[in-house]
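Look over this today:
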Amino acid sequence: MSFSSIIGQEAAIGNLQNAFHKNRASHAYIFHGSRGVGKETTALAIAKWLNCHNRSDSDFCGSCPSCRKIRSFNHLDVKFIFPRPATLKTNDIQEIIQKKVKNPDIPIYFDQNVSIVMEDIREMQRQLSYPPYEAKTRVIIIREAEKMSVYTANALLKTLEEPPERTLLILTANHLYTLLQTIRSRCQQVRFRDLLPEEIEKALRERYHKSKESARLLSHIANGSLGHVIGREEKSLMERREAVLDLVDSLPEGDPLQLIGHAEKWLKSKESLDSRLQILSLTYRDIILLNQEVATERYLSASDLKERLSEPARKIDFSAGQAALSEIDQVRMSLTTNVNQQLALLHLFFTLRNIFHFRSE
């Protein structure tokens, strides 16, 4: 891993390096932007670069003892703090860290409520009371810093107000303005942009060896975030796409029993329901592009299905397609609430059928 391998964040990295070259770097930064766009990866890369034994003006070597220790999260002067359940045991934390070592791109997620634990901030402050053991610059990385309570944030504020020498703090945030204003005002802010679909597709094919079809689909599902789609199983993704296509194929005919059958099948795998609806939305987007005759391969989420989707594209116009997209989005939003999922799906499927029938009359 090098700076050049971080996708799409050349401007942010260039500005940071320029500040360090001119001795104008801040003691604390907030890297903010969507989840999974490279904030954490860049923070670790900065830690390596500042402490590399063989660093160049623009990159770190990746192989010196310092780089290797940071890569394996074993460097005494580079601390990584992340939101976690307060009850998480030390062994569990180490297991999570080892997963990050094996694949740094995979984000850390929990199925329960998490926060930046006060105990972790206190331990960091205890360590900061001593000089760095071996680093030129000690680096503290706090991931998803917006998940601090006001109490924890106020404790961190003391460190930001009186930063120790040779210490750099990097906070990452998916939502900048959920951080306390007192925290924001004491850090320099660096924005990380969303990634382009073609950047994500290229990374998925070259780094993760995804097929062209699944990489293309994932790049459109990603919503600008590579981290959002890393680890998606290719086989199950393509099975979901086929289920969506089967539904779309059946809509013009409009057999009610068939639509009920589709709903029952989709509900058997509720954990993949939103993924299917997202693919359905992308499929309708492709249908609209085909209908408007602007469907170049670059813009389609499923360029391999151009021929299969051309038939429904002839039976729907732009306004009907937009109405379908709006219905899908409303159902996706409703499913995050305590709604009857079966009724919501049936309502959607019959609405989509009626859109086809209204257009064909």
